[in-house]
Write a structure and sequence with these properties.
By secondary structure, this protein is mostly helical. Helix content is 45%, strand content 8%. The protein binds zinc ion (ZN). Zinc ion binds next to strand 2 and helix 3.
């Protein structure tokens, strides 16, 4: 999960009880870097405006600017109305990255992605439980398909990540190739990059990369 710097001023359309508007989408999409706030996928084919606290018909929640989030349909449907009391990634007082560790399985794409709450407060526990489902749930035939697609995208990026690591590691590569690989990895650990949570945690957990990127790690 990544922190989002929510633009303070609410779009005017919310005052007239409209949220599914061009005005809201034009602000939400770039504000969340085009990424689903739960799984961190970008370039969404199925973006949805998600109510962080389910409105259940309550207009105060339905048109509350602070309650509107950008999500993919898979995560939105998994979250539903059952998952509440979660970490708010738009809260400037919460560093959501430090609260939940996400690591990829080493080789097998059918294995679960590891999602661990690092603190025992209820919000961290609830959020880790939800994110675990967003990455791993395959309890219906269609969720089985969307899970395979999701894992393919993440695994392809993981291969690139490991290729850049290999370039930094091997003596056969030139200084300019190593510099380019380091710059690529630096891009991957920015919050606007798809699935940045994994690349950041993999850098932190990897002794070699931690040393290589120590001058650019700010998390
Ligand atoms: Zn998602």
């Amino acid at each position: 999960m990544f922190n989002v710097d929510r633009i303070a001023k609410a779009p005017d359309c919310l005052n007239s009880n409209q949220y599914n508007t061009q005005e809201v989408v034009d602000i939400l999409e770039p504000m969340f870097h085009g990424k689903c706030y739960l799984c961190e996928r970008d370039s969404l084919l199925d973006p949805e405006i998600e109510h962080f606290d389910p409105h259940k018909g309550d207009d105060a929640k339905k048109y509350d600017w602070g309650n509107l989030f950008y999500a993919c349909s898979r995560c939105n449907s998994i979250k539903g109305v059952a998952h509440t009391n979660l970490l708010d990634c738009c809260d400037v007082n919460i560093d959501v990255f430090k609260k939940i560790k996400c690591l990829l399985p080493s080789i097998i794409d059918t294995a679960d992605i590891s999602v661990t709450a690092l603190q025992d407060d209820v919000q961290s526990q609830n959020t880790a439980e939800l994110i675990h489902l967003c990455y791993n749930e395959k309890n219906t035939p269609l969720r089985g398909i969307t899970r395979v697609v999701l894992m393919d995208i993440i695994f392809n990026l993981h291969v690139e990540f490991q290729q850049y690591r290999l370039i930094l590691k091997k003596k056969m590569y030139t200084p300019s190739e190593k510099l380019a690989a380091k710059e690529r990895l630096t891009v991957m650990i920015q919050d606007d990059y798809p699935f940045a949570v994994f690349w950041k945690w993999h850098v932190l957990e990897d002794t070699f990369l931690n040393e290589q990127l120590k001058d650019v790690i700010d998390f």
